[in-house]
Design a protein that fits this description.
The chain is 44% helix and 14% strand. It is built from 5 helices and 8 strands. A 3-stranded parallel β-sheet has the order 1-2-4, with helices on one face.
């Protein structure tokens, strides 16, 4: 309604749909339907796995990255087979889980390493990438927050992220 009609939305999209597979290696009916709908209508979609190393995927960084990249790339194939050239951005939100507290370590060094690795992989394929940055594992706005914001943003910029997500996330 805001765009006027579906053709005008396809010509000048002002939104992006966010959808994820379910790790490990599962494309739900809803996620697949979203991919196909967005592809058919030219609506940009961000299809990004959120694998947790040691929980919903392998504990090793290489293993977790391999599974998450397979999830992202298989979603890309579904999307592009529906409408070749339809706008999509992908990437991987693969991070480790703190087994003691069962929390996600959102700014851990391992997360940044896998971010850099999939950025290289997706750039090699010519696929625009999504990345998280400007976020912190701190519970309060403090020195930890500031340093994590800065280093995650620097890392995402150096990785060449096309879309930076989660800025200001604590």
């Amino acid at each position: 309604a805001i765009a006027g009609n579906s053709d005008e939305l396809s010509d000048y999209p002002f939104l992006i749909h966010y959808s994820e597979p379910i790790s490990p290696l599962t494309h739900s009916e809803e996620a697949t339907s979203n991919l196909i709908f967005c592809a058919k209508h030219g609506i940009p979609v961000n299809y990004t796995p959120a694998l947790l190393a040691g929980s919903t995927g392998p504990v090793t960084l290489a293993g977790a990255l391999s599974v998450a990249a397979a999830e992202a790339l298989s979603g890309l194939v579904i999307h592009q087979l529906t409408n070749k050239g339809a706008p999509i951005i992908s990437g991987v939100a693969e991070t480790n889980i703190d087994m003691r507290y069962t929390t996600v370590s959102y700014t851990s060094p391992e997360f940044r390493l896998t971010h850099s690795a999939y950025a290289d992989l997706f750039h090699h394929y010519g696929i625009p990438i999504w990345g998280t940055a400007g976020c912190s594992d701190s519970q309060f706005p403090d020195l930890q927050t500031g340093s994590e914001y800065a280093f995650t943003l620097l890392n995402a910029a150096l990785d060449g992220a096309n879309l930076i997500h989660d800025c200001g996330y604590l």
